[in-house]
Design a protein that fits this description.
Strand order of the largest sheet of chain A: 3-1-2-4-5
Number of domains of chain A: 1
Order of helices and strands of chain A: EHEHEHHEE
Number of helices of chain A: 4
Radius of gyration of chain A: 17 Å
CATH class of chain A: Alpha Beta
CATH topology of chain A: Tetrahydropterin Synthase, Chain A
Strand content of chain A: 25-35%
Distance between the termini of chain A: 16 Å
CATH architecture of chain A: 2-Layer Sandwich
CATH superfamily of chain A: 6-pyruvoyl tetrahydropterin synthase/QueD
Helix content of chain A: 25-40%
Number of strands of chain A: 5
Mean pLDDT of chain A: 97
Oligomer: homohexamer
Structural class of chain A: alpha+beta
Shape of chain A: elongated
């Protein structure tokens, strides 16, 4: 049976939900307050989980201090204290919903984490709204 | 790979655990303090999770404001600030354990959420006791 | 300068807000959902704080294990898994609002804690609603 | 002795810390990542506390449902899902630090809450950074 | 479909991460501050989850008061307020990483919980670092 | 009216409560499980609060990034992942109760924070046990 280890980090960012193919009225109807043209923001809580077999010599599946550094160097440096729409390359043409942010973070980290570890992202946009990718 | 999105809501309710087919002694032995004839109560924390494919036009799997409204209109209106045994139709002949409350909420919401979304309920009765349905 | 030490406990109880001198309409208007005749309930989080001078021999202001036992033996035994209106002597003629519950707990514990310690009660009725007595 | 009651609400907003009298270099030096020209954002947790004497007829110091509505109608409607610098009148010429936001919220609510209640604001910008006004 | 029920407990313990087959330099390099020869410690939060079919007579999958007692009598009595390396039999020759502690707790409880319940352990070493066994 | 700002940090440490002037029996009676000769440990949550007048040019009472650095450089470097009894100078002859740890941290930081700010320490030893110094 495998073990899963998880590390929680956070970042603070501004964003706006908007589909440029739609009229202002449709955007307002679909995204409501999240469509505010001047942006709003969140304290995002990010949990990165790895699944696999622990190393018997260390007792670690993965050193969580190293995982924390990987997250900081590859995700937080790009997203923390940023405007997700304007300051990142990822959301120029992709709506920064929690679902899409989680998928993007998964893709970024998947390149940095050895493929024999399963990778999962959990992202809290608020205490009440959160997403997981992949779902299970 | 699929995405899971979750919305947390809460409700405050009174309940009593009791099996009318058993004697008072057996009820007291099985349910302990939870068998108090005058009821006790909890702040229930309810997490509703949906799994599926996000809509590429919105970036949403499901609009969580809409999900919140569905939960309020179909669950909270029936359970919040209620006596689960006396004020609801569901627990006239069913013990309002956390397990049974979670299953009932799943059945209520399953009728309101399009079937191509998987549905899962997590219910915290206290910070220390919680249930999930279905289990995985 | 003095030190304050605090111990957090919790209890689960049912209650109803109601003033018997008023009509059903006035009670409904004033107390809303909290006036439900069949009761509702909460997970109450209780913080008991003592202020004074630590004992130099122990380094303790007050042994928090002892404080926990005092709270359990004098408050939780009366309130946990109870109907505050029906099962306790305190709220026969006193409305069990969070304000009144906090004052009653203060009075109960004031008799059990040496008077050279200042005593303060903080009571969370929900994560969003809480009271303190005395206020400062 | 008086009682204090508190209500917790939250709002999500974008902001930027910047002093227009200073050069870009000084702003960057003083405010660091918080000076990002494209804004960043937070989930602000707001606690509003009132101190006074409970009404013996209700057992309430202040109906927290009413307090919640006052906060929503006077604060959240202006700040939630907004850019504090661009979308509000308050921070045109005032830096939206947590300190200043707390003072502004206190001033807004002070006009809406009867003066025989003491009023206090606690504002969490993140789980780790928070301010209180007035201090005691 | 099955139901999962979970009970949260906690214990406070000291530990040190160290592999006696390695030099002091390698231990310091691999385990960093966690290799401190005089130990450090944590408030461990332990969640024990059982999956199966509820009993229709009680509405319980498993009485969580009984589960709490099983955890206390078999795990907490051995680990709470202990030095995991020195005071327990389990970590004489096994590094007390969160991964290994979770596996050991699973093995201890597996013998005490009827095998028709699936058993899962979640162990928080800190708010930011946690492990699950088995992974799914 | 003044403003109070607070910064939360944490450290993980081992400790033992013991008075060398007492017999083993008295130590066991007074300190119970906390007297374990091999130590136990905690995740300490530390809140440092400063009170004063914000600077109108920045809108800050005190830059919380700077406060965080002061705490890390003067407190965490000494206490995090340490044995408080063996690895620090402060608790050679002083029992590392939460009360005493809070007073020591106050003394350390009082020398690093300008005296026109009032300084207060809140220290959580567990979620349920915490101390404040000074008390108000």
């Amino acid at each position: 049976m495998k073990v899963k280890v998880s590390r929680r980090e956070h970042f603070n960012a501004a964003h706006r939900l908007h589909n440029p193919e739609w009229s202002a009225e449709v955007n307002e109807k679909i995204f409501g307050k999240c469509n505010n043209p001047n942006y709003h923001g969140h304290n995002y809580d990010l949990i990165v989980s790895l699944t696999g077999e622990p190393d018997p010599k260390t007792g670690y599946l993965f050193d969580l201090k190293v995982l924390s550094d990987i997250i900081k160097d590859n995700v937080l440096v790009k997203f923390d204290h940023k405007n997700l729409n304007l300051d990142t390359e990822y959301f120029k043409n992709l709506n920064p919903t929690a679902e899409n942010i989680a998928v993007i973070i998964w893709r970024i980290l998947r390149q940095k984490i050895d493929s024999h570890f399963e990778l999962k992202i959990t992202l809290y946009e608020t205490e009440r709204n959160f997403v997981e990718y992949p779902a299970s």
